[in-house]
Design brief:
CATH architecture: Roll
Helix content: 10-25%
CATH topology: Nuclear Transport Factor 2, Chain: A
Number of helices: 3
Radius of gyration: 14 Å
Number of strands: 4
Structural class: alpha+beta
């Protein structure tokens, strides 16, 4: 994805100075659970399975992740967050991710749990709502 394009997480920032810097590993890691969740959504949107695996908690990370090339992620709506700030060790983010496939439109409504290990946030798991 072009660094000057609008970031898929819909922060309003260009991809290169928003989630792109996390995907490339430049600078500090995502400072909050919500920032990590947004960067993970953007990774789905740009097809970066390596970043998704790297930001998945070692306690729940799958051995591999195959992304569906037919899914086009369209929009992210963050509904709420619980904790997950710079001084927390755990956090929850509820979101709706909208997508499109050849079969039509869909949405994923998930409540995701995150944990901070050292100075990095990781995705633990999520339940669909």
């Amino acid at each position: 994805m072009d660094d000057s394009a609008r970031c898929p997480c819909l922060s309003g920032e260009p991809y290169g100075s928003c989630c792109g810097r996390y995907h490339r590993g430049t600078g500090n890691p995502a400072p909050t659970a919500e920032a990590l969740m947004r960067s993970r959504y953007a990774a789905f949107a740009v097809g970066d399975a390596g970043y998704l695996l790297a930001t998945w908690s070692p306690s729940s990370r799958p051995d591999r992740l195959d992304l569906d090339d037919d899914v086009r992620w369209q929009r992210l709506d963050v509904l709420r967050t619980e904790a997950g700030g710079p001084f927390d060790d755990t956090g929850v983010v509820e979101f709706v991710a909208h997508y499109r496939t050849a079969g039509g439109r869909g949405r994923l409504h998930e409540v995701s749990r995150f944990e901070k290990l050292g100075k990095r946030w990781y995705y633990v798991d999520g339940r669909t709502a």
